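From the methods appendix. Each design record in this collection lists the tokenized structure first, followed by the designed amino acid sequence. Records were kept in a plain field format so they could be parsed without special tools. The example shown here is representative of the layout used throughout.

RECORD:
FOLD TOKENS (198 positions):
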């Protein structure tokens, strides 16, 4: 018997569902059904809340309006997933949420980018209006098993310890780069163990 409900993987900025090919190979069909939606970010110009709305539409189209799901979001994908959970009603159907290298507390690398040009990147600035809304009311996360995976030397989420949710487990992965969080065999081993838990 395969563990858990459907699994949804949410990719990050300037990327596509191909980002998860290493994870999918390591899972080797042990989490089905699996949804890896393509959410084009417009080079960072699309606001995160708009992307979260698209994510919700793809989930509903694939699994209907009520079926429970597990979510894993990598990088910006983790903030998109969290926005859907907390602001768009996703908490009602989410069992488990894995945030991997996601700037849940903002990243200093987003500071130089103006909102009028790159709204999605600006949403990831420390203290952005979106992050203030998410961190200001955590009620929607209370019934979800949350885990944050991060690395200390992350150059996309700066400083690396900001890649954590305000609740749930925090797991420091023994890797050196942002990309290795979703590609390195040691990281994949830990992520897959979490995803295969009953």
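DESIGN:
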């Amino acid at each position: 018997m395969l563990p858990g409900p459907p699994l949804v993987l949410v990719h990050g900025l300037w990327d596509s569902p191909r980002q998860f090919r290493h994870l999918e190979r390591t899972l080797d069909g042990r989490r089905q059904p699996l949804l890896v939606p393509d959410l084009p970010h417009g080079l960072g110009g699309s606001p995160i809340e708009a992307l979260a709305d698209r994510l919700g539409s793809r989930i509903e189209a694939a699994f209907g309006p009520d079926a429970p799901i597990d979510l894993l979001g990598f990088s910006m994908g983790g903030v998109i997933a969290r926005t859907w959970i907390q602001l768009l009603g996703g908490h009602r159907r989410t069992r488990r949420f894995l945030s991997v290298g996601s700037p849940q507390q903002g990243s200093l690398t987003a500071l130089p980018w103006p909102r009028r040009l790159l709204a999605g990147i600006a949403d990831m600035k420390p203290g952005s209006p979106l992050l203030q809304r998410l961190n200001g009311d955590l009620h929607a996360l209370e019934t979800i098993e949350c885990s944050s995976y991060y690395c200390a030397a992350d150059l996309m989420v700066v400083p690396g310890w900001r890649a954590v949710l305000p609740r749930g487990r925090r797991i420091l992965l023994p890797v050196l780069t942002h990309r290795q969080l979703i590609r390195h065999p040691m990281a994949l081993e830990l992520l897959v163990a979490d995803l295969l838990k009953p």
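APPENDIX NOTE: The longest strand covers residues 94-100.
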